[in-house]
Structures are given as structure tokens and as C-alpha cells.
Design goal:
It is a single chain. With 177 residues, the protein is mostly helical. Helix content is 59%, strand content 3%. It has eight helices and two strands, in the order αααααβααβα. It has a two-stranded antiparallel sheet with strand order 1-2. The protein is globular. The two termini are 18 Å apart. The model has no long low-confidence stretch (mean pLDDT 89).
Length: 177
């Protein structure tokens, strides 16, 4: 795993631990889902349901694949070595990427405006300055928009262990796990 990917793993663990208790469990995913859906107030019910299903699948996949001792929680030691394994998580990440990026396009024009992008990403827990840096790295148009497809690909790239120098690396800031 590349150093950049290892840093992304550390950040993702800290974000998934939405309640800050040091482990990831189903309550963390419910909390994060609720925050994201609140930020996506203008999205239709279908997009919200798809996002909720994607978050639930993400948790189920993590629990199935990484909860080594079956205690219902995932520790950082269980998480680190495996979370970026494309064979285990590729389809789950793809579903998550499509659902999350669709929430950013409530009017269905294929474009995501910066304010909603920032709201969704900060609801997940990313630092606002880093979110703006990511949006800029995606190359917004003159009206400060990116495409849904650009964001979906960016999410998928973020979870790729062999990727470096990607826009998503701008989300990584010094954080303790």
C-alpha cells in the first residue's frame, strides 16, 4: 500500500468512528448517514434511500470482512490492513460512490455546485478547507461546478491502495487515530 493510501486509511477510520469512541460500529454509520442526509435536504427520496442503502451495505461489508473476533466493532488494527482491498470492497465502494455523488445533484443536471459538495463532505467529517482543496482539484467549471461522474471517480480513486497524487489526497490532514 502506498504511503498516501495509508494516510487515507487513517483518516477514513477517524471519520467512520463518527461518535469518537475509538472503534467503528453500526451506530457510527447510522450517525454519519443521518448527518449526510440532513445535508442533502433537497435530494429526492430515491437518492436518499440509495444513499442510506449504500451506507448500510458499507457497514455490513466492513463488519463481515473485518470484524475478526465477531464482537460487532471494528478496531483500527482490524481496519488498517484490509479496508483498501479492491477484491473485498470494490463493489461496495462503487455503490457508495454512485449514491453519495448523486446526492450532490438534486436537480439532476449532472453537475454538483460547491456549496452542496462542501455540506455533504463536512457532514461526513472532512475538514472544510480540505474539502475546498479537493473541489478545486476536480477542476470546477466557470460556474464553480463539477460533474457527478468526476466526484464518483474521485471517491473510487480515494479507496484505491495503489493510487497517489490524486485529488482525494487533499483531504488528508494530520489526525490522530
Amino acid at each position: 500500500m502506498r504511503d498516501e493510501a495509508a494516510k487515507r486509511v487513517e483518516l477514513v477510520f477517524s471519520l467512520f468512528d463518527a461518535n469518537g469512541n475509538g472503534v467503528i460500529d453500526s451506530d457510527d454509520f447510522e450517525l454519519m448517514t443521518d448527518r449526510v442526509l440532513e445535508a442533502a435536504a433537497a435530494s429526492d427520496d430515491g437518492a436518499k434511500a440509495a444513499a442510506r442503502a449504500a451506507f448500510r451495505r458499507y457497514w455490513t461489508t466492513l463488519a463481515t470482512e473485518l470484524d475478526a473476533n465477531g464482537d460487532g466493532v471494528i478496531t483500527v488494527d482490524e481496519f488498517r490492513p484490509f479496508v483498501l482491498d479492491p477484491k473485498r470492497f470494490g463493489p461496495t465502494i462503487a455503490e457508495f460512490a454512485e449514491a453519495l455523488s448523486a446526492l450532490g445533484d438534486p436537480d439532476g443536471d449532472g453537475l454538483i455546485e460547491r456549496p452542496l459538495f462542501v455540506s455533504l463532505m463536512t457532514a461526513i467529517g472532512f475538514e472544510e478547507a480540505n474539502v475546498h482543496a479537493l473541489f478545486d482539484a476536480f477542476g470546477p467549471d466557470a460556474e464553480d461546478r463539477i460533474t457527478v461522474a468526476t466526484w464518483a471517480v474521485g471517491i473510487k480513486d480515494y479507496y484505491a491502495p495503489d493510487m497517489a497524487g490524486i485529488p482525494g489526497d487533499r483531504l488528508v490532514a494530520a489526525r490522530a487515530v
